[in-house]
Structure formats: C-alpha cells, structure tokens
Amino acid sequence: MSKAAKPAYRCGECGWTTVKWVGRCGECQAWGTVEEAGARQGVHVVKPGAVSAPAVPIGQVKAEVVSSRTTGVPELDRVLGGGLVPGAVVLLAGEPGIGKSTLLLEAAARTAQGETVLYVTGEESAAQVRMRADRIGAIEDRLYLAAETDLSALVAHVEKVQPSLLIVDSVQTIGSADATGVPGGVTQVREVAGNLVRLAKERAMSTVLVGHVTKDGTIAGPRVLEHLVDVVLHFEGDRNSRLRLVRAVKNRFGPIDEVGCFDLHERGITGIADPSGLFVSRHPEPVPGTCVTVTIEGTRPIPAELQALVGPTEAPQPRRTSSGLDSYRVAMVLAVMERRLHAKIGKCDVFTATVGGIRLTDPAVDLALMLSVVSAAGDQALPAGLVALGEVGLAGELRPVRDVRRRLAEAARLGFTRALVPTGSLEEEGPRLEAAAKPGRLVALRSPAGRTTPFAPGFEVTEVENVWDALNLMRSAG
C-alpha cells in the first residue's frame, strides 16, 4: 500500500519543493521563502481564451514614441536616462536613513509644479512628512499626501486624485487582503507589486516604489520584485559623509552605467553636477602613502585619492583593512607586490582607504593602489601632480583600461601635470575618440614604453608595460 501523499512546501523564489517546512530554501539559499503549497496535484490543462489583440509580424507593429518627463532633479534624470517614462515603475532601494524619502519628496515637489503627484507613505504619518516638506521647501498645491498601509485604500486614492506620478514609501509596508501573510512578506510584496505595476501600465502613470534592503545590501522581498519593475536604482552612501550616490542596476529605458551624485544636508538634498575634486585631498607638500587615480562613474570621470598606511606588527596575522575599496582586489594587488616586486610587507599591517567616502571597484585603480602602498612602505612620497591608471595582472603586467583619454583630460583640467598609464592605452582609443577631442587641446602620440608624451599643455603621459617599470620610474623621479 502506498503511503498517503504528504503536503508539499514550495520556495516562492525558485520553486524548490520539500516535504516539510524549512526556514531556508535548499536550492537558492533564501530565507523565509518556503511556504505550504498543499497536496501535490496534477497539471491543469488550460483552455484557449480570448486575446486582447491578434499577433502580427513584428515589422507591422507601430512603434510609439514615449517621451520621458523630467523629475526636476537633473542628477536623478541622468540616472533614469532623461526622466520618468509614463507607465514606468521604478524601484529605489537603500539603507534606512540614507535619504530615499528626502530625495523622492524633492522630486515630487518639482514634478508637482506642472503635474499632479500622489505621495503615499506607509512608514510615517502625514504630519511627519509635512514637517520634512516644510524643512526642504517641498510644499506644492498639486502634491497630494496620504498615509495608508492597505492596497485597496491606495487604489482608491489613485482613482480620486488621478496622478501622473505615484510614489509609494515603501512597498514593504503596504498589505493586501487578498494575499496571506503579513505586510513585507514574500507573498504580500509580490501581490502588492504586481497590482501596482498593473495599475501603472493601465493608467500610463509613472510609479516609484521605495524598497527596503537586508543587512547584506540586497533588496528585501522576493527576487521577482526586481523582475516586475522597469528600473531598479540603488541609493548608497556613508552615514558619516554627506555624499550620496544613486546607481542604476536595471533600466529598460536608458543606460545602467550612470550614477548621480547628491549632497544630503539639513535643508534637503542637492545634486552635484561636477563632483571632481570632492575625493582628492589638498596637501601643501607630497605625503607618503597617497596616490591619485581617475575612475569612471557612468559616463563621468572622477579623480579619487587612495591612501595607504604600512607598519610592522608583532601579531601572527597582520591586518589587511580597506575602506572604500574591494578587499579581494586589495589582497590580490598586495600578493602581486610580494611575489613580483619582492616587497617585504608580509609581516606588516596594511591599511588602505579612499578620500571622501567614494567606493572604487574600477580595475583602473590597481596601479594607484600599488604605488600608494609602496610609497607608504618606503616612507617616500610620489612626485607631485601625478595620477596613475592601470589594471595589475597576476604576472605583474599592466593592462589598458577604457576611456583613458577622458580620464586624462579630466586630470589635466584639475591641474595635474603627469600621468602613468599602461603601454598602448592611447593608441587603442585613438581612432575612436580622436574626432571627439577638442582641436588643439589633446595631442596624444604613440611612444615607446617608459617614454613620456605630451597630452595637453603642461601635461605629460608616461607609458609603462609592467609594475617593475612603474616602480623604477617613480623611484628615479622621487
């Protein structure tokens, strides 16, 4: 006799099933996504139903031009690809207290100067939001505010106000009576997000959803939430710094490599159109352990200073601490230094950090990181006015990086006088970017390794093939 069928439990993220409930999915390792699915049933045969429109060849489909509307915040428009598209759903995620509500209230007030906006808050009372609006000057007649946590009540507000922009702060606080579980759970978030996306598409209403993040930085709730929306933005920054960055992780209407820079202060939040110089310290004299590089954030080159401190230790395990840098990449660069340059830092504590709270993940910062550590270990400052670009390979070679000309042009604009780049960096980008260069400003010629080349008035570029050449050049220059 066969055993009676046991009730199955299913993961809401990946569909993995088990005969008993567990707190963590055995397939995708997500927590709290396993729910009871009932007894196992056969596959239902779906009968043909009515179609909304007949299928036609793709060449006969009319391409409707959908223009985006500006939010009134240029830095946010930059990340969105020009503004908010009617019917688009944007998910803005970030840590608590990072400034998400302030940014959206600022954008809502700017948009309300010409269109109707509905701001629904589920985390604060209407009076609390009004206090913030008074502080940042976001009081507009066409900006409507409602404090609701029920999805049906939210839809009723939309029916009455008829907004062109809906902001929900946040999607994890809204609950639906048609779904099981508590607000913020997997089932509730999926139900609420699905209904809001459908509502936005039907009414051609731009919608912005605020999302919570977990302690590891990922968006809370089911992963399907990121698939449902059109745009996913991450709002990040250091609590000890006023600088805030908005990055696009997913964007169906624009690029995903753009970044917006903001200054969060007591009167609100302000976009920073030119962040160059915010991440570089001004020293009256060259200081050992510092080196400047130029990273690319979206389409914008930003000079950034790397600092290093190296000191002997008696501890059996020397510390390797980094702030604003990828710890795995720092460990790789230190290993290359020990093996290829025979640097004696195995029994030393090494501390590395960036200036201004910026986080650098660009491989082009490898050479600047290596030079700053070498400078700190030898207590010898690098030449003044130097920037270093290049990715360090495990064999000690230097690999070219993208957009070298734009990086160097930005360094020259800020007053730097010398650059160290991998061999062939200027030659590879020459045919593609030569037409974009301003006549008479950028003069880049191919030079042998270790030779300097004039790039702009008062700015020279030195090409090197490997870390040995770079180190010898810096020692001879120092």
TrEMBL record:
Gene3D superfamilies assigned: 3.30.230.10, P-loop containing nucleotide triphosphate hydrolases
Residue positions binding ATP: G94, E95, P96, G97, I98, G99, K100, S101
Gene: radA
GO terms of biological process kind: recombinational repair
Record protein name field: DNA repair protein RadA
Biological function: DNA-dependent ATPase involved in processing of recombination intermediates, plays a role in repairing DNA breaks. Stimulates the branch migration of RecA-mediated strand transfer reactions, allowing the 3' invading strand to extend heteroduplex DNA faster. Binds ssDNA in the presence of ADP but not other nucleotides, has ATPase activity that is stimulated by ssDNA and various branched DNA structures, but inhibited by SSB. Does not have RecA's homology-searching function.
Domain notes: The middle region has homology to RecA with ATPase motifs including the RadA KNRFG motif, while the C-terminus is homologous to Lon protease.
The organism's place on the tree of life at top rank: Bacteria
CDD domains given in the database record: RadA_SMS_N
Chain intervals for the UniProt region annotation (Lon-protease-like): 349-478
